[in-house]
Amino acid sequence: KAVESDAPKFPIPANVYAETVVSVHHYTDRLFKFRITRPQSFRFRSGEFVMIGLPNAEKPVFRAYSIASPAWDEEIEFFSIKVPDGPLTQHLQRIQPGDTVLMRQKSTGTLVVDALTPGKRLFMISTGTGIAPFASLVRDPDTYDKFDQLVLTHTCRDAAELVYGQELISNLAEDPLIGEFAPRVTLYSTTTRQQTSHMGRITHLIESGKFYSDLGIDALNPETDRVMICGSMHMIQDVKALVEKLGFEEGSLNSPNSFVLERAFVG
Ligand code: A2P
């Protein structure tokens, strides 16, 4: 179906899908979202990542990207940073509908509900593009099968960077497939470098208790709660230390437990 001018100029590597860009939306000069067609045979668990690249070289540069769309979606969504000299993102930020994006056929990752033991509340702690795997999970009915309440936190430098997550949650209610679950999700957005109604790093807000008082919820408790963490390396290290101090233990698919973490795509 691809038109002549969109045909890749280099052969598609083995075990790689060549998919078509469906839509692109730029949020800021650092962040954009794009959606591509989904190969019929591609299966993944909500929360996983894949390697993506562009057909612009004999040996394309691939980077890990969390899939932001849920496992039932007909398209694949990604939420990306733009790095001026980033080996992939300097080119990826210029994609247009109709262009080709390469995607390796195997997905993987630790931010999956099966790596956690059952619990009442699921806390998803993110910064920047680290919200992407949670955009997948909050749109998957399986997440609500396993947890009664979802609390998604998103911290960015400024308000414009929070828009992706705010749209995600405000659109949930209108979604015919998953709208019924919308009342069970709470979004807590904060900024660190621009004045807004909710400010501060999530680590500080949890430690001070402001996070709980703002939402009117009980404090994190490893007996009843599960935690997923995704964002910058320092953030995940600090939140890991914080939840371990509270008695949470890291889980995996082989040995599910009370929290899991993954570093967001960086460059
Ligand atoms: P800050 O502005 O105080 O550094 P970045 O855009 O650099 O990836 O950061 C995304 C968000 O993550 C920023 O709001 C940043 O806050 C926050 N952040 C960075 N490091 C940490 C950390 N160690 N713990 C909590 N939040 C962090």
TrEMBL record:
Gene3D superfamilies: Nucleotide-binding domain of ferredoxin-NADP reductase (FNR) module, Translation factors. Residues 14-114 form the FAD-binding FR-type domain. It is an enzyme of class 1 (oxidoreductase). GO terms for molecular function: ferredoxin-NADP+ reductase activity; nucleotide binding. It catalyses: 2 reduced [2Fe-2S]-[ferredoxin] + NADP(+) + H(+) = 2 oxidized [2Fe-2S]-[ferredoxin] + NADPH. It comes from the Bacteria. Its cofactor is FAD. Keywords: FAD, Flavoprotein, NADP, Nucleotide-binding, Oxidoreductase. Its EC number is 1.18.1.2. One of its GO terms (biological process) is cellular response to oxidative stress. Belongs to the ferredoxin--NADP reductase type 1 family. This is ferredoxin--NADP(+) reductase.
